[in-house]
Amino acid sequence: MEETDREAVATAVQRVAGMLQRPDQLDKVEQYRRREARKKASVEARLKAAIQSQLDGVRTGLSQLHNALNDVKDIQQSLIDVNKDWRQSINTIENLKDVKDAVVQHSQLAAAVENLKNIFSVPEIVRETQDLIERGELLQAHRKLMDLECSRDNLMYEQYRMDSKNTHDMNLIHTYFGDMQKLSEELAKQLWMVVQRSLVTVRRDPTLLVSVVRIIEREEKTDRRMLDRKKQTGFIPPGRPKKWKEKMFNILERTVSTRIEGTQADTRESDKMWLVRHLEIIRKYVLDDLLVAKTLLDQRFPPHYDIFNRLLNMYHQALSTRMQELAAEDLEANEIVSLLTWVLNTYKSTEMMGNSELSPEVDVNSLNPLISQNVVDQLLSKYMSTLTVKLVQMFEQNLQVAAQINEELKTKVLLLCLQQMNSFLTRYKDEAQLYKEEHLKNRQYPQCYVQYMIAVINNCQTFKESIISLKRKYLKIEMEDTLSSSHTSMDATLDIIAKEGCSSLLDEVFMDLEPHLNELMTKKWLMGSNAVGTICVTVEDYFNDFAKIKKPYKKTMTIEAHRRVVVEYIRAIMLKRISFKNAEERKEGAERMIKEAEQFRFLFKKLAAGSGEDTEGLCDIIEAIAEVIKLTDPSLLYLEVSTLVSKYPDIRDDHIAALLTVRGDASRDMKQTIIETLDQGPSQPNPNYVPIFKEITVPTLTVPKLLK
């Protein structure tokens, strides 16, 4: 307290000193005293008011605590009294069990009384419902059926509540309402008949179709209600859930399948054009049905049924199944053409799914293929084989006839057949070239270009085997020399066709690889581009299709693909897209090149499995170039480059200059010295080495300047 007084006095002295700093302020001392007195009185008044308020609050709190204590005591006493009364009434509650059972029984009897009218009139209602079904008044019939089901379900539910294990009474109720189940089945038959003919009914009697949909919706609601009650009570009436909506869609699906299958009116024996007629009828029926479904049927069903899209999927699936069945049959060549034309072209054209009246609901681009690509490939292969066989069969029939006359005529006919085949092969070669040129104008067409080219290549081998077979059967050994030139000419033509076909397929591969090849030996590549991984995956994917190519062309294609990949990789180096800045970058780039060479080696070893191809040598070139780039001591650069040149003598000066430019640390004088020295040195090429650098050109803008 004394400390507080001292602080107050010190503060007062400070304030007074602040007020009396000039002599003229002494005249205002009285004024200052009165002002301070007023301030003091004001502060004291506020302090008293605050203290009084706190005291009032404490007084009120104490009063409320006192009242709460009294209330707690009263409640405690009341709980004691209640507990006492409860203990006294336990025996009384046990004595009321009979009353409780009577209440339950009364409730059940009340339900029975409420349904007595319906119970006694069940036979009459059944007859009325049957008459309504026969007259086609389905809505009214369903209403009465629902009343009967409601009465039965309520009785069974009450019985279940009273004694769920009493199966005798349950069976008694079920038997009494037995005719009702037959009515439900009969009504369902009528509904499914309408559903089966829905595309006809919606045009002739749309009200009937709407009634059927309303009945199905009622049953769906009842199903949901009964399933909810089962979750709460465990009870569900017999026959529930009916799932009539699900059954309706199953009926529609079977109807669509039957409609597609039933369009075949003829067989090959009765009409050679049976398949064309069959496919045209399918096209017309499907288009008509979908137009009706979009314009009329969609309006008669609730939106959540999504009836048009459901039907569209059903038709697509039914068509897919039917097309696969047709593809599995022993089709002739013209029938294969008809089927593939319909599946690949007609189906998505404006004559069918691409019809403007079906858009935008039908998007042809989102439709899955009717048959898989594997089935398309098999059909194409069968078609081409069939064509080849029929050419050869025609020749053999003529030779068999000639052989019956004399040997001389047989030889003349054979010579004529081979001449005709030679002429045919020349035209065949020209047509294959035109086919390739048309494809290059738009690579999207034809859709099965790769499969067709594989068939063309395989046909070359088939032709060779057929020619040999004909000569063995119908030409004596001493006469072989007379036909050797013709045979050689045809073999050469077939080899040219096959070689061009293989080249065309590889062109397809490398057109797809071009953007990834352009990434090689760039900054992006050095930073970790996966270009080579993508190249390997793409090549392997294509060669999975090329696996159908017959020997020896498959082996030839694998070797050529291997060579072209390596050439393109080396070409990317010689284009000087990158110049390494330091030894660390050179090491990183060289190690990446060695790793990618190993990826190529693994890929082509896998593709050439069993063919006996040497997959090592070509990839060794990439590794040899990588060693030149990786070298850390520039003084040894000449030795490393000379080793490279001795192994691959077709390397030119511009290749060496480009390689040294990519290294990034060789001066102009050093490049010129190395090149001039190498020109004077001997080379020791590997006798098995096939020149590869002669195909690789180097940009010429910088080379002349470099060598000046």
From TrEMBL:
Gene3D superfamilies in the cross-refs: 1.10.357.50, Exocyst complex component Sec6, C-terminal domain
GO cellular component annotations of the record: exocyst
InterPro entries (alphabetical): EXOC3/Sec6 (IPR010326), EXOC3/Sec6_C (IPR042532)
Pfam families in the record: Sec6
One MF annotation (Gene Ontology) recorded for this entry: SNARE binding
GO biological process: exocyst localization; exocytosis
Signal peptide stretch: none
Coiled coil: none
Keywords (A to Z) from UniProt: Exocytosis
Family, similarity comment: Belongs to the SEC6 family.
UniProt name for this protein: Exocyst complex component 3
Source organism of the structure: Buteo japonicus
